[in-house]
Each structure stands twice: as structure tokens, then as C-alpha cells.
Amino acid sequence: MTDRRRRFEAEALVHLDAAYNLARWLARSPAEADDVVQDALVKAYRGFDALKGEARPWLLAIVRNCFYTARARQKREPRVGDDEERLAEMPDETTVGPLAAAIRDQEAATLAAALGRLAPEYREVLVLREIEDLSYREIADVAGVPIGTVMSRLARARAALARIHGGEDGVR
Fold it and tell me: What does the alpha-carbon distance between residue 24 and residue 148 come to, in Å, rounded to a whole number?
């Protein structure tokens, strides 16, 4: 194994879960997310020597760019449905009780469906901030937009999610 490969595995591949998580929420399909992450990892490995700074935001920016490139190439609307496949892995029912697990699963499915209805630019900032816990600066770097745009997208995304989750319609 080469030194470059060892460094790539140590610095970039440790963020594979975050890369897949972002791709899954953007693509709204596990199969598409797999393709996006695979493409992103190839590009990341090829450009690894040019990495300056933290690997996590750098890798997430590559994932984001690969998603939008694939979407433009496919020229199709995102898939609708399959909410259950997009949910994060939940704890086993036996650890929380069947009723609590059923309630939690229903709430998670409802929230995932609401999040899935957001436009991709809103979905990505919410995922990067609330799930991946990136700073506003890191999100700005990943998305290639100013911090003010990140802040406004987050505010709009949270408001839209609250409307959708609360039962109002008409967001996009």
C-alpha cells in the first residue's frame, strides 16, 4: 500500500459515513447515493494531493458537486417515495419498547418525508448543519456560497420544514 493511499484512507475515508449521508439526503435514493459517493471518492483520490485544510468539508464539497453534476446529466426530477430507505438507522425495538419504537419510527418517517420535499439547496444546508454538525463557514465552503447565503438558506429551510411538518403545503 502506498503512502498516498494510507494518507487518503486516514484523512478522507474516515468521513465516508458523512459523505454517504449527504449524498443520500440530496439524492433521496440509496442507489443514487451509492453512485454519487463512488464518483466522489474517485475524484477525491485523484485530487487528494491538492487538499489544503480539513478533509471533511473538502470531501463533502466533492460529494455535493458530484450530485449536482449527475443530476444535470440525468436531466430528470428527483425520485419521490421510498422514505423508509432514506431514514437513518434506528435502534433495535427491544431497547426502547415496541410502542415507543413505533412512535419514533412514525415521527422519523414524517420528518424524513418533510425534509425530502425541500429543494436540494435547502435540504443540503440542513443536513450539513443539523446532521453533520458543520459550522456555517464549513457549509459555505462545501456549497461554494457566502456565509450570509448559508444563514438565509438555513432560516428558509427551517421555516419551510416547520410549515411542511406542521401540515401546510406549497413549499419549493
Answer: 26
Residues 69-86 have pLDDT tens digits of 988 887 655 444 444 444
User: Cβ of 87: how many Cβ atoms within 10 Å?
Assistant: 15
In a shared domain, residues 68 and 128: no
Q: Classify residue 136: in a domain, yes or no.
A: yes
Domain extent at residue 45? 1-79
The CATH number linked to 22 is 1.10.1740.10
Q: What is the DSSP string of 23-84?
A: HHHHHSSHHHHHHHHHHHHHHHHHTGGG--S-HHHHHHHHHHHHHHHHHHHHT-PPP---HH
Lowest-confidence pick of 34-43, 68-77, 98-107, 131-140: 98-107
* CB of 114 closer than 8 Å to CB of 165: yes
The domain total for the chain is 2
- C-alpha 155/C-alpha 1 separation (Å) is 46
